[in-house]
């Protein structure tokens, strides 16, 4: 069975990266506790501003913001749905003042098409 992945791209103000890291650390613990297989958060390092499309353009990143690319891995879609239901009900995520603009976050669920471990094994 191929894993299911939730993916996210968002813009975080540079002066709020540490606050975001604190939030992400809490979120990671919660997702893992409720059954996620992996949780990864990455800060953009080499993401040019494209002429038509790019990570910064996709989230309308401003000069004082950095792009964050993250994903959560689950055993399958059914597990993902069950985990997310528990996570959304978890009071530890009910906090004021998120350190990013959620309206510009891109997210979605993905079925795995290919992974190296299945080919190289």
From TrEMBL:
Protein name: DUF1428 domain-containing protein
């Amino acid at each position: 069975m191929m894993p299911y992945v939730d993916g996210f791209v968002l813009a975080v103000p540079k002066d709020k990266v540490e606050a975001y890291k604190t939030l992400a650390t809490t979120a990671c613990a919660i997702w893992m506790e409720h059954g996620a297989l992996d949780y990864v958060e990455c800060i953009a390092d080499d993401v040019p501003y494209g002429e038509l499309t790019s990570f910064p353009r996709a989230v309308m990143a401003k000069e004082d913001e950095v792009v964050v690319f993250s994903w959560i891995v689950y055993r399958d879609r059914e597990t993902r749905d069950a985990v997310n239901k528990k996570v959304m009900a978890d009071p530890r995520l009910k906090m004021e003042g998120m350190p990013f603009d959620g309206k510009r976050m891109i997210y979605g669920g993905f079925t795995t098409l290919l992974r190296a471990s299945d080919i190289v094994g």
